[in-house]
Design a protein that fits this description.
heterodimer, A: about 130 residues, mainly beta, 8 strands, B: about 525 residues, 6 helices
Amino acid sequence: MAYNLTLTDSTGTDTLALTEVPLTTTPLEIATDVQVLSGNLYTDFVAQKRIWSHTWAYLSEDEYNVIKGYYDRQFTLYEYPQLTIDDEGVDLVTVRMSITPKNIIDDCGNVQDVTVSFRETGQLGS
Amino acid sequence: MQTRPTGFDTFADGDVRPLAWGVLISFTKEYDDDITFFTLDTSVLNGTDILATEEDNPLQAWDKYEYADFQERLLGFSVERELSFPYSVVSAIADFTLNNYDKYFTPHGDSPIAEYIIPKRPVRLLQGFRNTTLPQFVGLTQGMPEVSETDATVSFTAMDFLTQIYDMPIRETEAMQNVRTDEVLAVIFTQFGLAPEQYDLGIGRNTIKFLFFEKDQLTAGDVIRPLMQAEGGMLWLSEEGVIIFRPRLEQPDTSVYTFDDDNIVSCDVVDEDQIINHVIITTDVREVQEYQTVYAKKTSDTTLDVVPASGSYVFKADLQDPLLAVEEPVYGELADVSWFTAAKIDGSYVASGVTISSTELKTNTYEMTIANSNGFDVNINQMNLWGQPAKRISVEPIIYENLETDSVAKYEDKTLEITNNFVQDISAARSLALTILDEYSEYADIIEMEVKGNPAVQLSDIVEVDYNQFDGLYRIIGIKNQLQDSQFTQILKCRGYNPRDWFTLDQSILDGSDNLAP
């Protein structure tokens, strides 16, 4: 099975093939555990969210620029991109995107070890 | 406790509690046209609108505003209420912070609501679980919001609607005789356009023999605060937006919720004793008299009050005492009524053409606008006003004092001095003093607990505490509900409570256990 990762924002859509593994999904609890005097716990729960992350060992300059473009447009369009991962049931989920520093490794502009994280969220004001 | 649907407490008491909340703000202060019971003629963009409702409508005035939902932007809020010792009007204050990543709440910017980011915006805050939220606060924002560019947040402070009313000037002059606290409150609330459905007033125990307040000279708070002090009761705006007045002695006696080591997070004794064992009440009482002459200008008075030809003149009669009532003067010398006469400047009597067109009773004056349809000036040479003055019943103020000697022996003298002209006789002063001594002359624990909160719990609720030495009934005298960082925190300040069964006519048994009310 080949996983594809598709990013969408108001400028367009791009599908990035995940040629390597792992694609990590981390559950995120928006909740607080509180201990009462008896030593027992209760949990104030707000939401469960997910964080997806993936590391590309190598990306070409063009591939890198496509991903970086979605990251940068969060701060020019003032909106988060949407993420779709086929076969994972992730369909146009709004995500806050972050990216690790750019390591150029040759004169062609190839980039090494690019980790991108997508934190599930909602689009405020929409 | 607030009324809540079945299952609400199951979530509140549960292991995992799905928090829910609401933040509703009406920046534009526009009205929701789906709610049609209002008189839509008093809204002022920069003002405090308290609009009248029609009868039999359970909605509150503040429901009329069209609110926008900012639930998704909420970063945190806190709502705080506390009874001030030993009785009070209670104000609620709310602080809340919203996400302002797009500068939506930044004044003077590009936001579509920028021109509406100004003080006195109606706010409603709600808190609950899953799909059910209960009202926590209804009020107006205070001042401008605090905008943090670095955090991309905006913070607001809001006060409840009742607090807004306290700061507003009295709109109508009122003179009243033999009225209870609740009757005075109803008159004041009516002045501000509140319908009876918007307040729930118990029957006051204090009766005021004479009360006078003049429009624009006092704020509602100037009248309500001493009124409540003399009553020894409580007045507050509930979480739902209903103004509630409870007289002294009208207190609940059963617990509505229990706190033990499975729902108390922390519990500490507060360093406040709140002991009163000595009460001194000073009052300057007026009593309404029979009709009598309350002002007289005689022909020998050389002061000129000239009404110009075909013109009018405001005659101001200075009053020695405030009046409950005064009759409007008629022209010509008469007995047992208000009357006046006029003369030409040469002193000759004027037979007609001089009439009173309007009158206004103020605290120290009675003002009459007199019209002269004659073609010559006239002087009002005689004026006799017939009214009911409220005179001081003694030259010196009345001072009532009571002491709980056993308590003084144990805790030293803890005196509360009250100077209040709404306590209008010795019997009322004794009743108020005994009520205070009954509740405060003995030590009672005051504890502050952080608890596994239930948004339905309200100020003044009686709760049962069962943890170590804290065992028994407590009354909630302060409550702070806070939603921050995915946690609902409820902090309760509670005072040990000793329920008293006051003797009730036709219900209590003579020589039974019920106590005779002071």
